[in-house]
């Protein structure tokens, strides 16, 4: 199979969909790999490393989209890229379709077979291709939140760990999954007073058992959420419903109860955000203020640490990419129901129910798509 990887064009996105190691693996399996010139530079992978791995360097993204049987990316295809997709082509990348009707419409019109990293599952029901970036984003969230808390950036001017005689920042994390756990670990490590809210009692027992007194847990009732949000310096939104739009857990009304200059960090912004006042921002202009509350809502947070993120993502996606190339998408998905869970569009049909619910679009099952 001819596998292509274009340079990411989303604002401040320096990750790359294929590492030199993944290119080497694909070539070893008898496949051709074409990489757009400079695609890996932002992540610290020069063209020479791809050439050494057996890949071909091409000048333009247009050549990638024209020649490749499978296009491997990091972020969802932008409008100019979506126009170049075609039926019979495989797109393997993050999509986050639920809050993005324009992208969904374009993918359906293209007829492309789109497999989304964020909905591929494993035998435990986890999301193995989302997890690496969730880990990165979770660890970044307290860092960017602490920067936003600085007075010069509009925040309350509170130091995360305080100093002797001065209380540390109070941080609440909404969601105790992968993002929330890593966010809580880092925030607690910075010396903050951290509480994690979650709806799952087994998950909270797990967090208590593993992390002991590093941070507290609290049941995520509406009352508890409202009370905690009102009293803290930082709220990290870390909730996820796989493939679906994120629930709005903090309303605009709740902002009025918060301390002026408090910070909201919305790690769920890729799925529409879990704060009512969230809208996606970029690394160029990451924060904004609503009713005196500072919002950090960068939609590609892991792009800030492109090398670490690319390596972590590449480790996770490589086996699936090789399976798709070795077998073709249909056989690969027939053999692996967890990869089939990643199928979002095929031949103009939407195949992921949660996206259909969010956007009001009729869907067919992935199993039906296999027969088309």
Q: How would you sum up this structure, described in words?
A:
The chain has 372 residues and is α/β, with parallel strands linked by helices. It folds into 2 domains: 2-119 and 306-370, 3-Layer(aba) Sandwich (Rossmann fold); 131-299, 3-Layer(aba) Sandwich (Rossmann fold). 37% of the residues lie in helices and 16% in strands. The protein has 14 helices and 15 strands. It has helices spanning 20-28, 47-52, 61-67, 79-82, 101-110, 131-149, 178-189, 201-211, 222-231, 252-255, 306-335, 337-340, 353-359, 366-370; strands at residues 2-5, 32-36, 56-58, 70-72, 90-93, 113-116, 170-174, 193-198, 216-219, 234-237, 263-266, 287-290, 293-296, 343-346, 349-350. An 8-stranded mixed β-sheet has the order 3-2-1-4-5-6-14-15, sandwiched between helices. Helix 1 packs parallel to helix 11 and helix 6 packs across helix 7. The longest helix is centred in the last third of the chain and has 30 residues, at 306-335. The relative contact order is 0.15. The mean pLDDT is 96.
**What structural class do the secondary elements suggest?**
alpha/beta
**Unreliable stretches, pLDDT < 50, 5 or more residues?**
none
> Which outline best applies?
globular
Strand order of the largest sheet: 3-2-1-4-5-6-14-15
The residue-averaged pLDDT reads 96
Our Rg estimate from Cα atoms comes to 21 Å
Largest sheet: 8 strands, mixed
- Please give the alpha-carbon distance between the first and last residues: 21 Å
CATH architecture of the largest domain: 3-Layer(aba) Sandwich
Please give the domain count: 2
């Amino acid at each position: 199979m001819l596998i292509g990887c274009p340079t990411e064009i989303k604002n401040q996105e320096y990750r790359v969909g294929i590492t030199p190691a993944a290119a080497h693996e694909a070539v070893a399996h008898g496949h051709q790999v074409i990489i757009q010139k400079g695609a890996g530079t932002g992540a610290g992978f020069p063209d020479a490393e791809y050439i050494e791995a057996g890949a071909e360097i091409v000048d333009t993204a247009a050549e990638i989209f024209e020649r490749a049987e499978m296009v491997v990316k990091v972020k969802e295809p932008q409008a100019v890229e979506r126009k170049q997709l075609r039926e019979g082509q495989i797109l393997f990348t993050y999509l986050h379709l639920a809050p993005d009707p324009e992208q969904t419409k374009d993918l359906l019109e293209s007829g492309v077979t789109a497999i989304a990293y964020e909905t591929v599952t494993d035998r435990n029901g986890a999301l193995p291709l989302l997890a690496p970036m969730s880990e990165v984003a979770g660890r970044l969230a307290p860092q960017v939140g602490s920067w936003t808390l600085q007075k010069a950036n509009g925040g309350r001017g509170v130091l995360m760990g305080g100093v002797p005689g001065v209380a540390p920042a109070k941080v609440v994390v909404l969601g105790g999954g992968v993002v929330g756990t890593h966010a809580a670990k880092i925030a607690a490590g910075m010396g903050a007073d951290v509480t994690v809210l979650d709806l799952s009692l087994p998950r909270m027992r797990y967090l208590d058992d593993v992390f002991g007194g590093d941070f507290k847990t609290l049941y995520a009732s509406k009352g508890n959420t409202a009370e905690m949000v009102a009293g803290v310096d930082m709220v990290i939104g870390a909730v996820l419903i796989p493939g679906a739009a994120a629930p709005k857990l903090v309303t605009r009304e709740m902002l009025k109860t918060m301390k002026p200059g408090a910070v909201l960090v919305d790690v769920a912004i890729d799925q529409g955000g879990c704060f009512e006042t969230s809208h996606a921002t970029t690394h160029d202009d990451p924060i904004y203020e609503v009713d005196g509350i500072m919002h950090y809502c960068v939609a590609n947070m892991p792009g800030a640490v492109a090398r670490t993120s690319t390596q972590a993502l590449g480790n996770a996606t490589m086996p699936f990419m090789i399976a798709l190339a070795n077998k073709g998408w249909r056989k690969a998905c027939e053999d692996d129901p967890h990869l089939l869970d990643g199928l979002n569009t095929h031949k103009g049909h939407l195949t992921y129910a949660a996206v259909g619910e969010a956007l009001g679009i009729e869907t067919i099952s992935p199993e039906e798509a296999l027969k088309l």
